């Protein structure tokens, strides 16, 4: 199985240090020092989050397919000292709740309250994404504190592509379930939701490193696949630990 791995560090999308000019009174040496200090300050948060995360497991799937179930089970297999779950929709829901005076905690649940606000929240999120496609995914990566980040709810190619660009190794996982299975879990087709990009954006996406058929009677196969992914996560943790110990220490 071939995983998507970055072969070399990326250059930040900012001007080079030499392009930042301090006051003319500073000498050439001081100017270079000031420029580099300012450049590092601008890049520090992004560099830090990307350095922390060595592997991202990016889950995708239809409503009620079991994305959260698989994400939670993977986290239990790997352990919270190594991995954490990040939701692309969580920063969207927080920002939407704050702007519209809603209950953020209730928007995170599988409740009628969330379903009531789903359509207008989708439209609001689309407007944000059109302005900045990586807006919500960036917030997830910036908040990461573990070497393995489990992204529980990628919905668009732009979500997946963001992590492919910014994380060294990415494992893409599609969670699938039949409509009958999803209906038994409480799903019902909703116009403007199930035919929107937030649900259909990754229907034709390829390739996936894993496709998990999360239907009744398939528990053993699901477990085998998640354990394979967990092994990759532990390998990433060991790589992160080795890199940390090999890094030069300041005297």
Account of the protein in words:
The protein is of the alpha/beta class. The chain has one domain (46-245): P-loop containing nucleotide triphosphate hydrolases (Rossmann fold, 3-Layer(aba) Sandwich). It has helices at 28-52, 67-78, 89-100, 104-107, 112-131, 135-142, 157-166, 179-184, 197-200, 219-246, and strands at residues 4-5, 55-61, 83-86, 148-151, 169-176, 210-213. Strands 1, 2, 3, 4, 5 and 6 form a six-stranded mixed β-sheet that branches. The longest helix is centred in the last third of the chain and has 28 residues, at 219-246. The model is unreliable at 7-47 (pLDDT under 50).
| Broad shape | globular
- What is the radius of gyration? 21 Å
> Averaging pLDDT over every residue, what do you get?
83
The biggest sheet amounts to: 6 strands, mixed
Gap from first CA to last CA? 42 Å
* CATH H level, superfamily name: P-loop containing nucleotide triphosphate hydrolases
The top-level CATH class is Alpha Beta
Q: In sequence order, what are the helices and strands, one letter per element?
A: EHEHEHHHHEHEHHEH
Q: Tally of extended strands? A: 6
Task: Sum this structure up briefly.
By secondary structure, this protein is α/β, with parallel strands linked by helices. The chain has helices spanning 28-52, 67-78, 89-100, 104-107, 112-131, 135-142, 157-166, 179-184, 197-200, 219-246; strands at residues 4-5, 55-61, 83-86, 148-151, 169-176, 210-213. The chain has ten helices and six strands; from the N terminus they run βαβαβααααβαβααβα.
């Amino acid at each position: 199985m071939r995983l998507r791995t970055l072969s070399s560090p990326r250059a930040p999308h900012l001007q080079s240090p030499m392009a930042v000019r301090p006051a003319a009174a500073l000498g050439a040496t001081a100017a270079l020092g000031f420029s580099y200090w300012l450049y590092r300050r601008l890049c520090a948060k992004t560099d830090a989050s990307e350095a922390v995360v060595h592997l991202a497991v990016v889950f995708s799937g239809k409503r009620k397919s079991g994305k959260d179930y698989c994400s939670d089970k993977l986290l239990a297999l790997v352990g919270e000292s190594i991995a954490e779950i990040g939701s692309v929709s969580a920063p969207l829901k927080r920002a939407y709740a704050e702007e519209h005076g809603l209950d953020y905690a209730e928007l995170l649940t599988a409740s009628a309250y969330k379903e009531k606000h789903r359509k207008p929240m989708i439209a609001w999120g689309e407007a944000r994404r059109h302005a900045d496609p990586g807006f919500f995914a960036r917030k997830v990566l910036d908040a990461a504190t573990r070497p393995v980040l489990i992204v529980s709810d990628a919905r668009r190619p732009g979500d997946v592509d963001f992590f492919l660009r910014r994380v060294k190794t990415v494992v893409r996982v599609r969670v699938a379930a039949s409509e009958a299975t999803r209906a038994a879990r409480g799903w019902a087709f909703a116009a403007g939701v199930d035919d929107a990009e937030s649900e259909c954006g990754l229907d034709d996406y390829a390739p996936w490193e894993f496709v998990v058929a999360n239907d009744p009677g398939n528990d053993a196969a699901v477990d085998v696949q998640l354990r394979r992914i967990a092994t990759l996560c532990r390998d990433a943790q060991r790589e992160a630990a080795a890199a940390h110990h090999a890094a030069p220490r300041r005297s």
